Amino acid sequence: MAGAPVKLGSILSFFILFYAMYFRRYDIGDERLSPVKNHLLFLESENKVGVGNSQPKVALGYGACHDLFVNATSLLDYTDLKGNPEHFNEITNKEEFVKSFTYFFKHGAAAERFMSNSKLYDELVEQALKLPDTRWAIGGNAPLMARRFFLEGWKVLFGAKMSKKLKKYIPEEILIVGDNENEEVKDDIHMILEYKADEKFGKYKAPRANRYIMHNDENNPLLSSLEKLGEHLTSFKPNLLVISGLQMMDNFPFKQDGRDLRAERLDLVKEQILSQPLNTLAHFEMASYVDLELLQHLTTKVLPFVDSVGMNEQELSNLNSVLEHGRVVVVADSNPRVATALDQMRNTYKLIREKNNAFGSKRKLTRMHVHTLAYQAILTVQNSEWKRTAAAAAKASLTAHRYVCNSQNINLEKTKLLLDDSFSTTTNNDNNSRVFFEPNKPVACWEETIVGDKVEICVAPVLICTEAQLTAGAGDNISAAGLVLQVEI
């Protein structure tokens, strides 16, 4: 199989590899770009979404919002930073806001936080609207993933309470359920503080382009569209159910009069998943969580009952730590080695499969997708319902570039590769297995056995957009793109 791991058996191989990497790194341009692009496009063109009776259907929950995009360093004043950057689970004042933003900015790490101070939040929105480059767009995991599925040829149903104004962002062919007829809906607003690679904020410099999201939601934490979505699932008969947007519950004040409303709502999410026939695959989209109690709820009420999980490198590190140690990882390496991510994927897979068994779930985790700046990694269990893993990894890679560059055309002058000429498949020193990167066959796939399960792992390089136009929503589009080819009916 292309790109399968091999053993480095000679010193000569090492020096050939070293010199190839050295001269490429110090040469002008990267001759790998063109063949990588051509082969990724070939895989995409050879693998199509079904049409007619073979058109797949997806249902997505929960929620939507109005995203207000603003340049982070234009909105914030570095002189407001008092002391060192610091992480806060919940933002209550301006000082915490600036410290929290700077903490993630210096790591180039994505973050999403709840601001409990509504007055301050409204003031920040007003300030952002006065800046010249501020813009509005639809936001939320479900609508962004829904739009991607639709653009790729799927039939789509999604649940969200939305105003008529916000619904105009959604293609008419997508069925939206969530609010009552003639109900006046006030949309939640998310502030998307964007920054580019190497951008400076005082003495700090961002190692990569990313975003910091702030919200003060009222509708989304309650999953207010859950029941309406459930009413339509029976007649819609989706091939795939996507659970997303649960991070809006993070640090939201749910407990009142001894009642844990959040746990109750998550029990309903679990019931909604269980209500679907086993041939309707269930996917959970991870996000930025810091509330340990919520994460522990997810490990008992959601993760044991889904077939697939999607996440970025930060979310993978966090989920792996919560499952194994019961601890939250607030920030992780924003560009991890392939070997590190694969080891975390294997361990997370093993721990979730243990949850499958502990909770007697009829569904078993059979798919994981991790997207990073440099590569896409997809793990699928052999002979499961998931198909075309190599093509899915290629599709996700192309979507990452197109979305961030905000262009369907892949311009190699605005492109770079971070993946080296070879990579280890594990950090285990007893296993020196490596995959050699082949530009003419850039998607490397191989077989392994994890806790007795035969799996296929595919890793695709990302043609990184060097002139980022969009960052927020990239993960939703990439995850959806990774799914669109893997469900066949």
Structure explained in plain terms:
Keywords: Cytoplasm, Glycolysis, Kinase, Magnesium, Metal-binding, Transferase. One of its GO terms (cellular component) is endoplasmic reticulum. This is ADP-dependent glucokinase. GO terms for molecular function: ADP-specific glucokinase activity; metal ion binding. By secondary structure, the protein is an alpha/beta fold. The protein has a single domain (38-65, 141-187, 218-485), classed as Ribokinase (UDP-N-acetylmuramoyl-L-alanine:D-glutamate ligase, 3-Layer(aba) Sandwich). Helix content is 35%, strand content 21%. It is built from 14 helices and 23 strands. The protein has helices at residues 11-25, 33-46, 72-75, 94-107, 118-129, 141-151, 164-167, 226-236, 261-274, 292-301, 313-325, 338-358, 389-405, 474-484; strands at residues 6-7, 57-61, 65-71, 90-91, 111-115, 135-139, 155-159, 175-177, 189-195, 200-201, 204-205, 210-215, 240-243, 281-285, 308-312, 367-371, 375-381, 415-416, 422-424, 433-436, 444-450, 453-461, 464-465. The strands form five sheets. Strands 8-7-2-13-14-15-16-17-22-21 form a ten-stranded mixed sheet, with helices on both faces. Strand 4, helix 4 and strand 5 form a beta-alpha-beta unit. Helix 9 packs parallel to helix 10. The longest helix is centred in the C-terminal third of the chain and has 21 residues, at 338-358. It is globular, with a radius of gyration of 22 Å. It starts with 5 loop residues before the first strand and ends in a 5-residue tail after the last helix. 48% of the residues are buried. Residues 7-28 have low confidence and may be disordered.
